[in-house]
Amino acid sequence: MRIAYGYIRVSSEDQADSGLGLEAQRQRIRAYCELKGLRLAEILEDPGISGGKALSSRPAGTRLLSIARKSKPVIVVAKFDRLFRSVADAAQTIVDFDRMGIELVAIAEGFDMTNPYGRAMAQMASVFAELERAMIRERTRAAMKVKRGRGERISRHAPYGWDFGPDGVLVENKREQKEVAWIQRLHDQGKSLRVIAEMLNDRGVEPKRAKRWRHSSVLRIVSRCA
What distances in angstroms separate CA 5 from CA 28, 46, 119, 149, one per listed residue? Predict the structure, then answer.
């Protein structure tokens, strides 16, 4: 009887979708292995991990790759994007699996990567998975921009130069706004982010939530002013 290892993953966004939940993925993998006469040795889990991270950089993903190289099992996932959303990661891993004789099964898509057609279809799926991820990021950025324009709360912390009013809408902090204008003038004059941060620290200007200014804090302010 052939040995199989399952792999499941959810990101924080996926957890709201019961169809992508860990238990739903477990059930699909177990049912598939039983149907195909595979002995399921283990299901490795990466909860709360973004699909944007390479498989080799995830805790369970790293272990899965190590097992695959040693024992050449069948790797079973409920859906292809549980493994990859990066085209580069998918393409290279599929090539590596093929070279090592490792069979990869994506149940939802019905991929059989033991033949050229199956591998090509899997690589095409990874392209669309990456496109979907990019579109989600773009929609999120657009929504955040609209919220900022309305002065609505988008995080627990108000950005430097602003405070939250009683109704949760951003209101200007006049003292901090003077520093924001000063920072913008220095940036327009060609001062680097690190130099501006040092000048703020030398003047004794306090950041909103940190002890000292850093170039990354200055960058956030400059970016918002752009």
Answer: 13, 14, 19, 49
